[in-house]
Every structure is written in structure tokens, then in C-alpha cells.
Amino acid sequence: MKLSSRLDTIKNKVIAHYDHIWDCCCDHGQLGVALLSSQPKSVIHFVDVVDELMVDLESQLQKHASAIQSQWQVHCMDVAKLPLIKGKKNLIIIAGVGGDLLIELVRSIQTRNSDIELEFILCPVLHNYMVRCELIEMGFGLISETLVKENKRFYEVLHMSNQAEKPITPVGDDMWNLSDSDHQEYLKKTISHYQRMEANPNNLAKVSCLYEGLIMKRNS
């Protein structure tokens, strides 16, 4: 099964060994299935709150179980209540959900597991600036970040943990290549978006200036 550019970018960030990988809000499980092959020594957990999807996915996995060497488990549950395995290395992947919900899930997982290492790969749909600010507030550090374009839409993929020492920045740093036309397009659209929002007199935050600073930094 060929992955989309977004899911392939996420999969390629899973380089280190993890005892447990949690593919959250996994929909039809395409990413998790790919990880079964690329991470055969990990237990791959498929997690979604939609019962019908999980029943169908478990049926498909069982049908091909003889060809699957990796261990896997299917969970129909609230991602906020993940049963993380303490004493083991866990990677939590959350993609394809809005920024507000994503932060709600990360904050709940952090609250329930404040005494263990937490490592995430996140790919929010919209509200990337807000997500980054919330992650900074929660004390997470950056492992890597990538900007990816898929079907004329842009996504920011953040790999971070509560042990990483490199700071997350509100507008991104490592992901930008402003000699790339796609990156220029995304930056232009982002600046325009925040300029429209800032036209509201009740909105005092000048987020667009932070993104414009990336251009000034490049040109300096």
C-alpha cells in the first residue's frame, strides 16, 4: 500500500527502536500497517474511537496475520487515555486532527503520564502556531520538524519529546527551506492568513510579524 506524502514523512521519522508505537486516530490504519514492516521489533498499536473502523481493521489484520511477523494490537478507545507501557520506550503518533483536539489529547496524555518519557510525532490539521505555543508551554523540546505538501495543502510534522533539549519555536526553524518554491508559497499564505486575522481590532497579537521575520532572517 502506497502511503500519502504526509504519512510517508511521518513513517520516515520513525528511525530509532521503540518497544511500543501508538498510531492514534489511525482511521484505516495505513500508517500502522506500514510500520509493521519497517519496525518489526515494535508492538504497533492501532487506536481510534470509531468502533466500526476498529472492528474492520482488526478483521483485516487477522486475515493477513500469517504474513505479519510483527506484534500488533487494536484499541477502540479515547486517545487521551492511552495505556502507555511504563518502563518501555513509547512513541505516540497523532495525525489528521485539528489543532485544538490535538493539544487536548497531548495535554491529557502528559497529565496521566507525568513521570515517564513522552515522545510524539504530531501532524495537526491547521492552527500550527497555536499548537507550537502550547507545546512550548508544556515543556516539550524538538527532535525534528518537516514541512510537507500534499494535494495542494501543507502540513507541519513535529517530532518532539519531554526529554529533547532543542527548543520548539512558534513559527518553526529547521523545517524551512526558503529557496524552495513550495515553502515560499506556504509562508506567503500563512502571513496573509494572520494579517487578515489581525485586521480585527480586538486581536492584538502580531503573529504575521513573526513569520515575516523568517524572510528578513533569510535576507540578512
TrEMBL record:
Domain of life: Bacteria
Pfam families: Methyltransf_18 (PF12847)
Chain segments annotated as transmembrane: none
Name of the protein described by the UniProt record: SAM-dependent methyltransferase
Organism, as annotated: Aliivibrio wodanis
